[in-house]
Amino acid sequence: MADAESQTLETMEPNPMWDEESYEDAVETLSEDGLVFRVWGGDWCGDCRGQLPDFGAALDAAGVPEENVHHYPVEKVDDGSKVGPKVEEYGIELIPTVVVERDGEEVARFVEEEASPIAVYLADRLES
């Protein structure tokens, strides 16, 4: 099995239909040098399949270097809890979860579902 840092989530493949022009502000904020994005999800998860392709497209549009985007595929066990790389370390209970770090410190977190898309939600937190 590949180590956690080299695994990928198919759901993070950028959505080719995503409209970058509608999200210029979010893309600009996410393009800040040095931000690290840690993404927990599962290709089996409906919420992940619905949200992560657009987030992948936003990171692509922002020019975030591949080495600054870490994928952590998780599985659901019988009791509904999640298992996978760094799940306990980061307190992951719901997916998708995206943690943004700056200089090794968590500065924003998206968990499962919010009123705005992942890129917009995180950009709003990074700007405040």
TrEMBL record:
InterPro entries per record: Thioredoxin-like_sf (IPR036249), Thioredoxin_domain (IPR013766)
Keyword Phosphoprotein: no
Start and end residues of each Thioredoxin domain: 1-128
Biased composition range(s): Polar residues: 1-10
Transmembrane regions listed in the UniProt entry: none
Superkingdom of this protein's organism: Archaea
Keywords: Isomerase
Region annotated Disordered, chain positions: 1-20
Gene Ontology molecular function terms on file: isomerase activity
Protein name in UniProt: Thioredoxin
Taxon lineage: Archaea, Methanobacteriati, Methanobacteriota, Stenosarchaea group, Halobacteria
